[in-house]
What we know:
Phosphatidylethanolamine-binding Protein; binds 2-acetamido-2-deoxy-beta-D-glucopyranose; ten-stranded mixed sheet; 4 helices; alpha+beta
Amino acid sequence: xxxxxxxxxxxxxxxxxxxxxxxxxxxxxxxxxxxxxxxxxxxxxxxxxxxxxxxxxxxxxxxxxxxxxxxxxxxxxxxxxxxxxxxxxxxxxxxxxxxxxxxxxxxxxxxxxxxxxxxxxxxxxxxxxxxxxxxxxxxxxxxxxxxxxxxxxxxxxxxxxxxxxxxxxxxxxxxxxxxxxxxxxxxxxxxxxxxxxxxxxxxxxxxxxxxxxxxxxxxxxxxxxxxxxxxxxxxx
Length: 236
Ligand SMILES: *[C@@H]1O[C@H](CO)[C@@H](O)[C@H](O)[C@H]1NC(C)=O
Ligand SMILES: *[C@@H]1O[C@H](CO)[C@@H](O)[C@H](O)[C@H]1NC(C)=O
């Protein structure tokens, strides 16, 4: 009997240990803040596309046969269709009054036509908003309820700018394609009136090597998360 009991106790501890690690990796983004910022600086996305920020959400980006993994390289043939986006993260304020700020995800290319000569950059590839924030389905009973963990799943989103698949031209090397999560700087939970950029090139501004930064500034939005991939044309 004692042997049985200790067997079950062991299984219980091993199992709960596994769940704890899994939950922590998936939900406590703060543990990997430094890695994300480090990767973004290494890829020179900070400060080229945006400045250093405090990550509140991580962006999961899934195509049928590929996913964005903070700097992996994907063949353009795998990203022709709009990906499924999921925002995962925690903020103290999001759920305090049961309302959520309107979240927006952008996809921008700072390397058009090439990283060496980005005179068309940035190109706005996608702007999608009204990303819904949902409370987690599970109860994690670690008592950390004040810092509520929320899981956002894109279900009711609407496109401000439709998805244009990455299409790096021949012989232009690797392009960085950067996914950016944005929320209103003032934390409002009111609906935003986001203006569609006039053009994809330079995000409609007449400034080379600019785009997302200017649009976000004009809309009163700040960066709260990012992910990125590399793509290049087969012909180099
Ligand atoms: C994903 O890969 C499978 C197997 O190689 C293929 O049949 C399918 O067409 C691919 N889907 C897309 C969207 O590329
Ligand atoms: C908060 O920011 C949004 C987005 O820029 C703006 O529309 C709204 O008027 C601001 N609200 C307040 C109270 O400043």
